[in-house]
Every structure is written in structure tokens, then in C-alpha cells.
Amino acid sequence: ERTMRNKDSLLKFLLQSNGFDDTERAVGFATNIIKSNTMMKKFYWHGNVISDNDATSGLIDALVRHPNVKKLTLSHALQEADSYDIVKNLFVNRKKFHSINIEGNDIRTQGDSTISDFLATNPHLQKLKLGSNCFSDADAMLFANALRTNNNLEFLDITDNVEITNVGHEELRAALFDYNPSDVGRTILNAVSDSNQTCRIRGMDSSLGCDYELNHQGGYQANKRAKLYSVFYYGNETGTNTQILRTQLPQDEKTMKLVPMILSSVNEMPAGLEETHTERSPLSIVFEIVSGWNIPEMFQYVFRGVEVEGCGLKDLNGFFRYAGYHNERPMYCRTAQFEGAARVFTLHRSRWMEDIVRWNISICPVNGKPGTDEDVTFYNAYSVKSKIYPAKRGWVCTSEGQER
Q1: Exposed (0-12), middle (13-18) or buried (19+): which is 292, by Cβ within 10 Å?
Q2: Which pLDDT belongs to residue 211?
Q3: Nearest to 128 by CA among 175, 85, 72
Q4: Can you count the helices (H) and strands (E) in the chain?
Q5: Interatomic CA distance for residues 351 and 355, integer angstroms
Q6: Residue 185: how many other CB atoms lie within 10 Å
Q7: CA neighbours within 13 Å on the CB side: how many for 363?
Q8: What is the pLDDT of residue 60?
Q9: Which residues of 143-156 are buried (b: 16+ CB within 10 A; e: fewer)?
């Protein structure tokens, strides 16, 4: 033990099925090593059963207080009936764990909501493994509610929790995507927006939904797009997409500005749906929507273009015509004089921060996509993530532009 203390190079500490003669002494040994190695990143304890609650409490307290342990496994290790009262301390102190594995510990919450309350705060936790325990339908319902306000958790494992029945599985599925065309009280966009877009769940009854409902597409935007595509895919099978759009969305200018996003979600089949969505083509879905859903208004409000004001380069002020999509938002172009030649300036959106996006006015490489290091950007404007169109005013000059 002495040789392992105060080793800054000890980043991982793994103890698996060691067959300790004195497990409590082994727990004390592990606790001391954790406390004395401040650079440790990962602790792994598996298959070494601990029967002393005081020893378990000391171990968990050391992990919670440790400044750098981010990945924790304490699996197939606890056998006391009240072990949950100790384990739940992992979820009380706002410790910034990235991964927690407490599989195989016969955990029963008895209705306690500590874990779900923790998840609902949207902590840094990315992976949570709860398999082979005794979680119930009541727990599953609490987890489902927590997932609706959590966009950091990427993986939840509930495998072999036999007390979670189809009732609990259905609640979890609904948290990932809860849409029913007959539910006229909620719109398609609200149903998708209210769903969790980041968490994959292992251990759910596979008969409850397709892969698109389980966030298998590889990211927030990709998962959301797959859900929208699937709604319109099945609507196209029954010929009800136009009816759904007309009855669930108000027919006004604000709704027409959502048309580009809707068309973008169906103009190409998302990756991963090739085997399950084979009966209808993207072209068929687009044709149904465009041909039956207020085409004059769509062209009036969406495909015309935008006006820009306030640029120091006077030729950039004026009308930018619609030119397709980039980063799931409309893109616009304008030809203007620059350094004695006619150049094409592109107005496009770039990703910047989680809730804020940046719009750029740039000269992009000929035949190249915007948003690369080869762009020469003259002006920026910022907007909230949900805003579909750039602002008319508020453009900020870069080093390449000119102040007005």
C-alpha cells in the first residue's frame, strides 16, 4: 500500500474478482489509495462483495470528495438490503462524474427519487449503468420525467431489471419520442422538441419502437431529424401529412418560416433508417407536403430572401437571395463589388455555442461549402439557436470588413 500512495502517475485503479480473504480490509486499502492519489481519473471495483456498510460508506465518501475521479464502477459488490441508502450519496453532492456503473447490486429505491432528481438537474454525467438491479416501473417513470430536462446523458442501461415491465418501458420510450397523430392537442414540432434527443437506452423492450425513437443517429440534431422524418414517413403511408400540417400548425407567416426546417428533415433519408423505412421515398414525402401545403405562402415567406442593413461595405447592404441550406438553416447569396471585381458573398449560419448561433457574411471558395478555414468573413451577427432567419440589423464588423 505504501508504494501506491502519493503516485501522481496512478490514473486508473482497478480491482476485479480478486477473492480477498478480508474484503473490509481491502476496501480500507482502496479508500486510502483513492485519498492519497489526487490525479486518479478512474476507479473500478467489480465482483468483490462488500458486506460492511461502514466500509462502503467510507469508499463512496472518498470517491465523492476526490477532485479528479470521473469514471466510477462499483458493480456486483453490494449485498446488504439497505445498500441503496449508501449508494445514493453518489448522486447527492453534485460530484461531476462522467460515468457511473452500479450494476448487479440488488438496489431497491423504495420510491426514493434521489437518482432521478439528480438526472433532472442535467449534470455532467454521460453514462449511467443500472443493470441487474431491482428498479421498478415507478423508478422508470421518474427516470423518464428526468430525461425530458436532461441533454447531457448519452447512455442509460436498465438491462435485467425484471421489475420494470412494459409500463415502465413505455414511459421511457415516450420520453425519447412521444408522438401520436391523433393527439391534436400537441403539434409535431412540439412533440419532437419535448423529446430527449441525446440518450440511448439499453434494456428496453424492442417491440415498443424503431431505432429512430431510441436516439441511435449519432447526435442531437441527427436524432431530432430522424424523428421528424419518421413522422412524415408514416404520414405519407396513410396520406395524412397535409391534413396533419394544416390542422396542427396555424396557417400564418410564422408557420411558413418553419417550412424550410420541415422540408430539410425529409428531403433525404437519415442514416440508420435504410432497413426500417423502405416503403416510401423521400421524394414522395416532399411531393406530398409541397403539393398540398400552402405553396404560394411558402414561396412568399421562405424562398425569397432577406434584407441586410448596417454593413460598412455599402454594396453588401440590400437583398440576399435564397440559395439553399447550410447547417440546417437557409443560406443566402449576393453579388457585390469588392476590390474592383464582382464577388459572391454568402450569408450562412455557423455553429458557435450551445444556445447561440452566429451568422456570417463571407466570401467562400468557388464550388466550396461555407464554414471552412478558407472563408473570408466580413461581418457577424448572433441569434438564439431556435431562430431560423438572420437578423436584418446588428451586424458586427470583423478585421476584413469596414465600419459604417
Answers
A1: middle
A2: 46
A3: 72
A4: 13, 14
A5: 10
A6: 6
A7: 15
A8: 95
A9: bbbbbeebeebbbb
Give this prediction's pTM: 0.70
Q: Which three cell numbers stand for residue 185?
A: 392537442
User: Cell triple for residue 38?
Assistant: 489526487
Does the CA dihedral 140-144-150-151 come out positive or negative?
Answer: positive
Q: Provide the H-helix boundaries in 104-219.
A: 114-120, 137-147, 166-176, 188-193
- Return the bridge partners of 329, or none: 326
3-state secondary structure labels for all residues of 187-208: CHHHHHHCCCCCCEEECCCHHH
The pLDDT assigned to 5 comes to: 58
CA–CA distances in Å: residue 358 to residues 41, 91, 188: 35, 36, 27
User: What confidence score (pLDDT) does residue 323 get?
Assistant: 83
CB 392 within 8 A of CB 309: yes
Mean pLDDT to the nearest integer, 35-64: 93
Write the pLDDT tens digit of every residue in 98-145: 999 999 999 999 999 999 999 999 999 999 999 999 999 999 999 999
Helix (H) or strand (E) holding 361: strand 356-363
Q: Residues 313-321: contacts with CB within 8 Å, 24+ apart?
A: 313/338, 313/378, 313/401, 313/402, 316/345, 316/361, 316/378, 316/379, 320/345, 320/347
User: Which amino acid does the sequence have at 10?
Assistant: L
Q: Which of 68-82, 115-129, 304-318, 330-344 has the highest mean pLDDT?
A: 115-129
